[in-house]
Design a protein that fits this description.
- The chain has helices at 31-40, 55-71, 85-93, 106-119, 132-136, 138-144, 156-162, 176-183, 194-198, 203-212, 257-266, 333-336, 339-355, 362-369, 371-389, 394-415, 419-427, and strands at residues 5-13, 16-18, 45-50, 76-79, 98-102, 124-128, 147-150, 167-170, 188-192, 237-243, 249-255, 270-273, 278-281, 290-297, 304-310.
- By secondary structure, the chain is of the alpha/beta class.
- It has an eight-stranded parallel barrel, surrounded by five helices.
- It contains 17 helices and 15 strands.
- The two termini are 29 Å apart.
- It has three domains: 5-212, Aldolase class I (TIM Barrel), CATH 3.20.20.70; 226-310, Roll (Ubiquitin-like (UB roll)); 334-427, Orthogonal Bundle (Helix Hairpins), CATH 1.10.287.
- It is globular, with a radius of gyration of 25 Å.
- Helix 1 packs parallel to helix 2 (55-71), helix 4 runs parallel beside helix 6 and helix 15 (371-389) runs antiparallel to helix 16.
- Strand 8, helix 8 and strand 9 form a beta-alpha-beta unit.
Length: 429
């Protein structure tokens, strides 16, 4: 039997969250706050359907969706406003782990094979309200989708037998007995809909009931309880915090049992302040949250290594890392040529030239000439890469790529785009 998931859901229209697919029942909370509450209450994923009526609305809702993906610790599945492959790509690039194609729309059904081959079967789900489609499109579903979202709850038992892919069924409020019955179907991989949303604070208890009934559920627990760790005389465990993207050490803090358990539960780093003698959620006042990627204990179980996604600066001084007071530097050439470090250093020089022009600077020449000149150079350098790639000498392409990257960074500075934004976008794909 597959592991069952509890998936919260919401619908977005004009940057507002709704409970229903028709966009008539508005939710008071902001979409991001709502998604965070779903994530913190042990749901395993969040389905977000976009109800945008035009392209302008859709772009704004995509921005909200992107913020949801960045601020929640669980996978997000997106759907809506899909007319071509590019629309699927936009949802995935916004940070969605998966995109649902609505099979009530012939255009989206027709896109299944194309987008599955492009992005991978695991990125594509099918939304079905008419279970006859499960038989009609059996081969398509089996080969090109990873699961089915079922929007006709009365047909759950039948769909579980018919579907060639695992089924997530959207359920209204039902009894606990009925819920256990539904989750016991081998091909039901999870539930969503009103049942999950209305009982979001009870998900932990419902999962416990499932375990009692031998139904496997997603477990966001930890391999070690706080009692398993070795504490210092003050009852605290030190935590070394590392950026998951750059491997840079950001800070060192401490956890007590409450901070440890809250971090596990919410997916956001929470510490114990020794100076204030109180719990503190990193980023609660600054907005510079740290989202957990992994927590690892050392060999003695007396120190935790946390790898995180850092929003903004880690240090209270505004510095990216708390470790900036150099005592001694014996860096090797290899360390000096750390790719991300080189990019950041070159980019900072380019930004400084923009802010503080220097006479005779080629960078300032490009900024002075404006966006058209910069774009022309980016295009020229991209062409040079293509030409160099045909040359058997491997050195030439290195030179041309370096030239391209420099001009691309000038363009980034001109448009106000940072490396952090670019790498965050890449990490979400």
């Amino acid at each position: 039997m597959n592991t069952k998931k509890f998936m919260a859901c919401m619908y977005l229209k004009n940057e507002v969250a709704y409970q229903d697919r028709e966009g008539t029942c508005r939710i008071g909370e902001t979409p991001v706050a709502l998604a965070e509450s779903y994530s913190e209450n042990e749901c395993d994923a969040i389905y977000v359907g976009l109800l945008s009526e035009n392209d302008a609305e859709h772009e704004k809702d995509l921005d909200v969706l992107r913020e949801i993906c960045q601020n929640t610790a669980v996978p997000v599945i997106g759907s809506g406003h899909i007319f071509r492959m590019e629309d699927v790509k936009k949802l995935l690039y916004a940070g969605c782990q998966q995109v649902m194609l609505d099979y009530a729309d012939p255009v989206q059904l027709e896109l299944t094979k194309e987008v599955s081959l492009k992005f991978g079967k695991e990125k594509i789900a099918a939304g079905v309200a008419d279970i006859s489609l499960l038989e009609q499109e059996k081969e398509l579903l089996k080969e090109y989708t990873s699961n089915v979202f079922l929007f006709c709850p009365g047909a759950t038992a039948e769909a579980a037998l018919m579907s060639p892919a695992p089924v997530v069924t959207f359920l209204p409020e039902v009894s606990l007995e009925k819920l256990i019955e539904v989750l016991s179907y081998a091909n039901i991989s999870g539930i969503s809909g009103k049942l999950v949303n209305e009982n979001i604070t009870e998900i932990s208890a419902i999962k416990a009931l499932c375990r009692e009934n031998k139904i496997p559920v997603e477990d966001r627990g930890a391999a070690y309880a706080f009692s398993d760790l070795k504490k210092g005389p003050d009852g605290l465990v030190p935590v070394v915090v590392q950026d998951v993207k750059t491997d840079a050490v950001l800070m060192v803090a401490y956890m007590n049992e409450e901070a440890y358990n809250q971090t596990l539960r919410t997916g956001r780093m929470t510490y114990y302040s020794r100076s204030r003698s109180e719990l503190w959620l990193k980023g609660e006042t600054s907005g510079h949250y740290q989202y957990v990627h992994s927590l690892t204990a050392d060999c003695d179980l007396d120190t935790i290594l946390a790898k995180v996604t850092q929003v903004g600066a880690a240090c209270h001084t505004g510095s990216y890392s708390c470790f900036f007071n150099e005592i001694q530097n014996r860096s090797s050439k290899q360390e000096a040529h750390n790719p991300m470090k080189v990019f950041e250093e070159v980019f900072s020089v380019i930004e400084d030239r923009k802010e503080h022009p220097k006479e005779g600077s080629y960078t300032n020449y490009l900024f002075d000439k404006g966006i058209d000149k910069i774009l022309k150079k980016v295009g020229e350098e991209a062409t040079e890469i293509v030409i160099a790639a045909k040359n058997p000498n491997p050195n030439e392409i290195k030179y041309e790529i370096a030239d391209f990257l420099y001009h691309m960074m000038v363009l980034m500075a001109e448009k106000g785009v940072t490396w952090e934004e670019v790498t965050t976008e890449l990490a979400n794909r």
